[in-house]
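Figure S4 source data
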Amino acid sequence: MLLKEINPANFKNFGTIVKDVDAYREFNQSVYEDDTRIRSSLWHFEKEVVLEPISGVGLLFVRTADSMIQKFLFDHPLLIHPGVQFALLPYECKLSYRLYYQSPKIITPTTNILTGRGFVPNINVQTLYTVLYQEKDKQFKFRGEEHPFWELTYVNKGKMICEVDGTTYQLNQGQMIFFAPHQFHVQQSDGKTPLSFLTVTFDGDIVSPDMLADRTIYCDEACLNIIRSIIREEKEGQIYGDDMITCELSRLIITAVRNLLSDAVVVKIPTKLKVSVDNKYVSECVDLIHQNITSTITLPWLAKQLNLSSSYLSSLFKQKVGRSISEYVRLVRLEKVKEMIGEGKYTIAQISYIMGYCSPTYLSTEFRREFDMSPKEYAKMIQ
């Protein structure tokens, strides 16, 4: 986090520099003497406030409109706009300052750890337990376990079926999944192809655990390069190899979270849609879509199979799944395309024909729209 000196241009969204504090003497006043090193909350006020340094130099943390944190040097009086979230910490030993205010302060917790000196990582792998690269036959099945630490599984070749707390996911080549502490998980091959995968178990501080768990993650080139480095370090067994793997694992988690936040990596529905479908019609509709994904699937055809009206099925599906039938079919079809690319048995033109696209060009357009890369780029990425 870059420390900035305050000037009118870089601080205008948060407040202004105050030249005459006397103009605010009628406000309520409180004096703070702070030697706190770490803070995990922010203040804000419904009316403008003024901060006046008394002794020492401070660090002013402010939250931006996009929820990022900026850090400024606090060494002269400042007016803070209403609603701006901020925190003050001493830069070195102790900070004394006066707060001029007109309304009560409101305290908001933050996932960012704010520190006056140094940097406390938001993502920090502290303990590495196991790093294991396994090659299994098509009959592989692991009965399942749960443990009080994190686990990463990355599929390098083949397909893996994972059941996590009763929800089924399919991991294709080039995909990974994180199991959070105490999540019961079962793993097995798809029964058709041999399976090669990397397993890493670890513990540490993960600032956004919900961001990683309960989803399959498609690895872009940056993630794949990190995973290759982890596998290489595990196989070569060089001095300080575990230290290198620990660093690379932190990089992998940070890269994955960044991708997820920016939607650069598409996280899609498992092969058996992850919905707590309490309606048999929607459940049967999902099964029909997956079973017939290489055929032409229309709303009237689905409605006829289920003996429902098209309008009722469309409304019910959108209510339970959160997306339209046509959009769901489009996503499942593209997932099937990725699966076929991973198998390496067909050309892009053949896949286009099998999956019912009007042309390879149209398939490429749809693929790039969803995954931000062409089918050929994806094929090269997972080689």
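Figure S5 source data
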Amino acid sequence: MLKKIFCIGKKHPIFVILTIAFLVRLMFAAFSNERGYEYEHFLYIEMPNAWIDNAEYQSDTYSYNKPKGISLFYLSLNYAWIAVLKFLGINSLTWLTFFSRLLHALLSLFVISFGYRITELMSNKRTASMVAMTLAFLYIIPYSSIHNTPYFVCIAFLMYSTLIILRQEINRYGSKSVNVHRTSFLIAGFFLGLAFSICYSVIPYIVGIILTLMLCKNVKNALITLLGFLVSISIALVIPDLLVWGKPFTELKAYIETIPQLTLSANQLWISLTSIILFLLILIPPFSIMLLCGFFNKWKSKLLLFLPTLLSILYNILHYSEMSYMIPIIPVFIILGIIGWKDIKDNSTFWQKNNVLHKILIGFSIVINFVILLSMLMYK
């Protein structure tokens, strides 16, 4: 039996990784704190549940009587599946929360799969397996993936769009043709629009994708991608806002009004530096330091992923202090970091001579990660 599992794992590593990743997320869904991100829980579980029951949701902490800059598209998706579950006779808020987490857990498996496929296109299967394992088990990802937070839900759409465009760009350079499956760019743009409709703060990543296509002299396909994006948001952002507020883009306008004004003061620069340090601490040093070095290694050869991620990091650390805004770019940062660090390690005489030290550093990060992972499961 174990031999058969080992053979399957060797031939199809992504299948084994996805299976174990789902089991980890299932445990988080079953045993984690009931509310998790409390604000999102209110918006995307309790409130649509009350609406379906034709009741006004009452809360001492939260209210929703005016536009707050949230995603009504994502709220509508939650409204739809909650309505289906309640039609099937599932009315308990606890069970609705559990099924919500289960759906989000399944969606997060696509993030792992897309990460594996993107890395395989850019590197090889072994590196792709390393990326998939990191996306599967790095504590912050399974924890965030099961909660009702648009910052994580949008990632699958971003990565699918990136995968489509990356594949087409590789084909374009390989065939020396600028007319490689232009409908793929339209589809990619549509999914970028869905990602934006779920989480507005991913706009720097989308701008970076389109800008990179233009820099790579693929202007026509950049415009096609933009067209797909505009078609997508004209559906996903207009219809829900019309139904709730009677005007299109009402929530988007409210979000824009909440964006902090950019000030390059000493205090803001200190906050930005603190945000970078906190980001690296969350990803667990020394592993996170390796990722940072790998991220910048040979960045020109990875421009399609590098520029959107860099713009997202700069935008978020200069405008916000909350780490939740950084969640959408963590998977792509990990992909670039692992690919880049592997190249550094393979071409460094220091690391070739000190391979044991490298294993110790990685092992230390793995131990810390699983201690945090287990503590999050054990203590609600």
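The chain has 19 helices and no strands. The chain has a mean pLDDT of 88.
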